[in-house]
Specification:
The protein is of the alpha+beta class and 160 residues long. It is 51% helix and 15% strand. Strands 1-4-3-5 form a four-stranded mixed β-sheet, with helices on both faces. Helix 5 (96-107) packs parallel to helix 7 (131-159). The radius of gyration is 15 Å and the shape is globular. It starts with a helix and ends with a helix.
């Protein structure tokens, strides 16, 4: 198991498409309309990256994006290929991928839009892997998010 970041890098290497669409594999209720909504602003040149937000808590996703866009965690994205190709490999490891894309886009001064996508849900870790294993995976994920936000962001800023 090499992680989500390696899977994304492998997928990008297999295409020459200038626009990359990523969605989590375990979504329920995802439709063609959701994908088209993600792609439209990037293909029209209005955005460099669009991040799809679940509407699970109303406007919380948009509030987080305004307060600290680095912490917007979503696997549903559409972005220009050059954004992810230019990312340092250490920012594409496992759950670092989303925060890495956020940080890299911010440093590149990319135009990022956040889009509420209604009517889909992921299968949560506690359902996929059972309560204890899923909870442990969630705790690890949150710890990684905090680490990346606090440490890697400053390191990345210093080299760019």
């Amino acid at each position: 198991y090499r992680g989500k970041g390696e899977a994304v890098r492998t997928g990008i290497a297999a295409t020459t498409a200038p626009i990359i669409v990523m969605v989590d594999a375990d979504l329920l209720g995802l439709t063609v309309d959701h994908i088209q909504a993600l792609v439209r602003p990037v293909s029209a040149g209005a955005a460099d990256m669009v991040v799809g937000l679940r509407d699970r808590f109303g406007l919380i996703g948009r509030m987080v994006a305004r307060i600290d866009p680095l912490l917007v965690i979503s696997g549903q994205r559409c972005l220009r290929r050059e954004i992810i190709e230019a990312m340092p490999p250490e920012l594409t490891r496992n759950w670092w991928l989303e925060i890495g894309m956020n940080a890299h886009a911010k440093l590149r001064k990319a135009r990022v839009q956040y889009l509420n996508l209604h009517g889909y849900d992921p299968v949560v870790k506690e359902v996929k892997w059972g309560l204890l294993r899923g909870l442990w995976a969630r705790i690890r994920m949150i710890a990684i998010f905090i680490y990346v936000r606090l440490v890697i962001w400053h390191k990345l800023r210093s080299v760019m």
